[in-house]
Amino acid sequence: MSTPPSLRGGARERLQHWLPRLVLSPSFVLVLFFVYGFILWTTYISFSNSGMLPDYTWAGTRQWSRLWSSWTWGIALHNIWVFGLLYIVTCTALGLLLAILLDQRIRAEGALRTIYLYPMALSFIVTGTAWQWFLNPGLGLERTMHSLGWESFSFNWLIDANMAIYTVVIAAVWQATGFIMAMFLAGLRGIDGEMIKAAQIDGAPTWKIYGRIIIPQLRPVFLSAIVVLAHLAIKSFDLIVAMTGGGPGNATAVPATFMYSYAFSRNEMGIAAASAVFMLAVIAALIIPYLYSELRESRS
Amino acid sequence: MSAGATVARRNTLGRALLYAVLAVFAILYLMPLYVMLVTSFKPLEEIHQGNMLALPDTWTFAPWREAWGSACIGLECSGVHGYFFNSIKIVVPAVLISGLLGAFNGYVLTKWRFRGHKIVFGLILFSCFIPFQIILLPMARVLGILHIANSTTGLVLVHIVYGIGFTTLFFRNFYESFPDELVRAAKLDGAGFFTIFFRILLPASVPIIVVTIIWQFTNVWNDFLFGVSFTSGDSAPITVALNNLVNSSTGVKAYNVNMAAAMVAAVPTLIVYILAGKYFLRGLMSGSVKG
Fold this sequence. Notes:
The complex is a heterodimer. Chain A contains 13 helices and no strands. Chain A is mainly α. Chain A has a single domain (71-299), classed as MetI-like (MetI-like fold, Orthogonal Bundle). Residues 1-7 of chain A have low confidence and may be disordered. In chain B, helix 6 (117-126) packs across helix 8 (152-176). Chain B: Residues 84-276 form the ABC transmembrane type-1 domain. Chain B: This is Carbohydrate ABC transporter membrane protein 2, CUT1 family.
């Protein structure tokens, strides 16, 4: 600058220079404190002697070994594995199938899409309440089948410790499939038609065109769908509380319900903190590489 | 161009089968909602005798009245209406404040970039994905220290803090594609930070404001984890009240009342979805696929 700005103009300029940062700072401070500060605090608690109240004396890995020797935690890990796998595979397969079917110039596409997607707008507590009633062993589906003439029909998964987790899978799939379908549908609409036309001219059958050309091009959508579903699965809490309350017994306990009960009913803060840190570590291992690649791609 | 449209060929039998499969799925998806609705209009005797899928022989609004005004939740027998209003008291300020903060953040992070803006965005963005179990214990203590534990005010704070990530993401991605030239020209004309935001960007932001409001509204209304962790009794939101109503083990289970209460909890988000499904879907998509 050739002429020095007046004092007033300088102050104004400095303000304009700092204003953006000033406007951003409340949010950033909130996030630093309530997210990263809290993560550090919880992590420290998982290495402390805390029980009902925080106790900041260092206890090494005591809480972690208590967590790992807990029978319920074992069940919770087993359940989240079974639930997560079935949930991801079923939602992805069903979502892809519905998307492909809807992509055939269907007349009522808009209405059908609305129907498949509406469960996503519901609270998991509503979904859980509805499905708990729907699958009620005495009065729900079972009774309905009997009254329709299928006398031997029996469906008591909800109160069967070995099967209850599968009822949660059914309800969760019902809720999320429409969303996965929408993701695949958007992917299908973005595929270049040239290669498909070329394959058709060569006389390739439809199933082959889908198997060899279309589905392989949906790879990024598969990745997004799997990350989203895995993330939802690990966080699942509401649906299980509403449908089974983690029962019968501990049969449908998952890490999120385990953490909640150790934190707020059993007053075992240390173990609860350790289980929460474990959940965060799993999600971070999943999300950070994904976000990194997504953000880098969008830059180029 | 859709892949299917290119592949599709005329084949009457195939088309009929296709529509049949789609219709079966549509029925399966609507079934739980249908069952909830018809159950909520049946007297209890009819539920104990009859078929879940049948329409009520005698229609009654009594279960809805009871769910709204007189069903017992814990020791309190005044239905879910108080909790419904709690949820509204939480949702409105939480959505507005987190939305406003997100809009400013998105604006700064795209049009007033400073060194380290990427790392700031990355740190804010990651907060969308943390499992909230990691913050439950310290948040319970902080709310206690601030004397807003067990209050709707406390839940407002919680929802603002953990809503910033998504609102910032939405606005940042939207403003990213807003032409820089317009902003630069305004700066040359001497327009300041807020003038540019309120005069130029905000009027063009209606779609993303709608997406953000719908997303935040749905998330906050449907929240259960924060509600059950940080409130009890009178200050609980509707989801917590619904769960307490349905899963309390005392007395005869009034399934019709439970279903009516579930419908009360579901209606606001369903209305939003039906009125603005397009924007709802857009929020879902940008919440999963970063851009």
